[in-house]
Design a protein that fits this description.
Length: 206
């Protein structure tokens, strides 16, 4: 990738990034033309190729940028500093809502990219996903206080279940043209309260 992309004003970088997320989230990798991304970003196709040498380079940049942005905002919302899993997940939800406001199509792009089977980018996406997922899960489970949970609970399995449900809810929300942030917060808070009744020790939090 040409370093001149990072020399652009942040606003212009985000315009190009959001254009990429939108186009790639609505089409397969093969059927996503660079010309459409350039047009969406308000630049020429030749200039887009000046910043990114080819479509694969742009696609993988956008994919890796998802992980970087997620870690950045989870850190900003102090998710990794929490020992209470439910507080951590609540803050994580707030962070993801912030990301959705700044990059409306990023979530849809992540889902699309994960299931993309084009041989040009498939293996790179899957390898990257495995390493990021392992890093995220291991770090979170290592920091939480497990004494608040019911005896004998498989904490790793519980976290996986809640993560899948949360990601499924976010995917459902992002399919709508307009995101109701207030409703999202209420819905997710209700989900957290339900999980507490299932997994915390009798009598609630210790």
């Amino acid at each position: 990738m040409n370093e001149k992309f990072f020399a652009l004003p942040k606003e212009k970088q985000n315009t190009i990034i959001n254009a990429g997320y939108r186009v790639f989230s609505q089409n397969t990798y093969k059927k996503s033309p660079m010309s459409e991304i350039a047009g969406e970003a308000g630049i020429s196709k030749s200039l887009l190729f000046h910043y990114f040498h080819n479509k694969r380079e742009l696609y993988l940049f956008l994919w890796n940028n998802c992980a970087k942005l997620t870690i950045k905002y989870l850190t900003e919302y102090k998710c990794y500093e929490q020992t209470d899993l439910f507080e951590m997940m609540y803050r994580g939800m707030k962070a993801k809502m912030r990301i959705m406001n700044l990059y409306p199509n990023m979530g849809s792009f992540v889902i699309k990219a994960f299931y993309e089977r084009d041989p040009e980018i498939c293996s790179a996406i899957q390898e990257s996903y495995k390493s990021y997922k392992a890093f995220k899960t291991d770090n979170i489970l290592a920091s939480i206080d497990t004494s608040q949970f019911a005896d004998g609970l498989d904490v790793k399995m519980m976290y996986r279940e809640m993560t899948l449900a949360s990601e499924g809810y976010l995917w459902e929300v992002q399919r709508n043209e307009e995101v109701d942030v207030e409703k999202m917060e209420k819905d997710f808070t209700k989900m957290l309260e339900f999980w507490k009744t299932l997994y915390l020790r009798k009598g609630g939090e210790k």
